[in-house]
Design brief:
It is a single chain. The protein has 198 residues and is mainly α. It folds into 3 domains: 5-61, no CATH class; 76-145; 159-197. Helices cover 55% and strands 6% of the residues. It has helices spanning 33-36, 41-49, 76-98, 106-137, 140-145, 159-168, 174-197, and strands at 24-29, 56-61. Strands 1-2 form a two-stranded antiparallel sheet. The model is unreliable at 1-6 and 27-38 (pLDDT under 50).
Length: 198
């Protein structure tokens, strides 16, 4: 397979070994980049809607390595540049369509407005892509704290059912099951007495 030299890096992306005159170029198919988050989702879904199928990607490896099963993870830097360019283009074209000079025809104004909307959609897609990259790169402890805690005294919790499931799962013995049920009955009696006093 003939591959452009600019597509061949200096070293193997898998093991880091320097490439010599002999190398293998593996080709693999990208099933749906939009769902995997490796491209701007707006552009990708637009191309999919127009019938443009995902293409093959060239991935050079040394003879001892195998290519990955999916594309390398996206880099946030390029998406920041695309976001800035798209947002700037949308702003300039939108301002041009809103306050068009006298020399512009109505068709040119309409084209500028349409292009502004398209670039704004691309900018939104880039922003979503950057957000996904940041989420993927979060440390494990930070992702852990993003989860909303479940309170032990949640009103939907059923202590009797929890005790029964723990007993059936073998986590507690029969004596502890009876102790938990007695505690729950005592709590119910106490609540009933409080309601009676009111």
């Amino acid at each position: 397979m003939v591959v452009s030299e600019r597509l061949i890096p200096d070293e193997c992306p898998e093991c880091g070994r320097d490439f010599d005159d002999e190398y293998e170029v593996e080709v693999y198919h990208v099933e749906n980049p939009a769902q995997s988050g490796y491209h701007n989702p707006v552009i990708r879904r637009t191309l999919d809607a127009l019938g443009h199928e995902a293409g093959d990607m060239h991935y050079p490896t040394c003879p001892d390595c195998e290519p990955p099963t999916k594309p390398p993870a996206p880099d946030g830097g390029s998406h920041h540049c695309h976001l800035a360019n798209s947002a700037l283009g949308a702003f300039v074209l939108g301002a041009m369509a809103n306050a068009a000079p006298a020399t512009m025809t109505s068709s040119e104004i309409g084209f500028a407005a349409l292009a502004s909307v398209a670039l704004a959609a691309v900018a939104v897609g880039e922003y979503l892509q950057i957000a996904r990259i940041h989420e993927r790169e979060k440390p494990a402890w930070e992702r852990k704290w993003d989860v909303e805690p479940v309170l032990a005294d949640d009103e939907d919790a059923d202590p009797v059912e929890d005790a029964r499931e723990a007993f059936l799962a073998g986590e507690i013995d029969e004596a502890e099951l009876e102790e938990r049920l007695d505690e729950e009955l005592a709590d119910i009696e106490r609540d009933r007495e409080l309601l009676t006093e009111r």
